[in-house]
Each structure stands twice: as structure tokens, then as C-alpha cells.
């Protein structure tokens, strides 16, 4: 599993995850929408921690920095 997420991408995902969790616990998001928000927050947090997003693969997206080529 090759990393395909850059640092800004990871920070944005963590920020969104934290906001969704706060909205759930402040009871702004409740019921089914709240559960979906928590699951989405978990997925965002997990993908940012492992630096890999499986949805990026079929679209060919890679926000990770390219390693410099060795000569």
C-alpha cells in the first residue's frame, strides 16, 4: 500500500473529522445523519493516519510529495 496523501490533505481530513465529531456530540447532527457523520469522521481520521485513500486509486489521484530522483 503506497502512500497517496500529502500533509495538507491529511490535515484537512483530520479537521473535518474533528468538526463532525464535535457536531455529533453537541447534538447538531443526530439520528441517522449523526451516525453517518461519525462513520465518515472515522474513515477520514483513519485514512489520514495511514496516508492512504483507496478512492484515490481508480481516479489516479496522488497528493503525496514525489521523492527526488536519484542519479
Terminal Cα separation, in Å? 25 Å
Overall geometry comes to elongated
Strand content: under 5%
Oligomerization category of the chains in this entry: single chain
Please give the count of helices.
3
Residue-averaged pLDDT: 91
Per DSSP E runs of 2 or more residues, the count of β-strands stands at: 0
Question: Layout of helices and strands, plus pairs?
Answer:
Elements: H1 7-25, H2 31-50, H3 56-59
Helix pairs in contact: 1-2
Main attributes of the structure:
71 residues, 0% strand, 61% helix, elongated, mainly alpha
Question: TL;DR of this structure?
Answer:
The chain has 71 residues and is mostly helical. Helices cover 61% and strands 0% of the residues.
Q: Would you give an account of this structure?
A:
The protein is mainly α. It has a domain at 13-49. The chain is built from three helices and no strands. The longest helix has 20 residues, at 31-50. It is elongated, with a radius of gyration of 15 Å.
Amino acid at each position: 500500500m503506497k502512500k497517496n496523501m500529502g500533509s495538507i490533505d491529511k490535515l484537512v481530513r483530520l479537521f473535518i473529522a474533528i468538526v463532525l465529531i464535535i457536531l455529533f456530540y453537541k447534538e447538531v447532527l443526530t439520528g441517522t445523519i449523526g451516525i453517518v457523520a461519525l462513520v465518515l469522521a472515522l474513515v477520514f481520521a483513519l485514512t489520514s493516519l495511514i496516508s492512504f485513500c483507496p478512492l484515490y486509486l481508480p481516479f489516479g489521484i496522488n497528493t503525496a510529495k514525489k521523492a527526488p530522483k536519484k542519479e
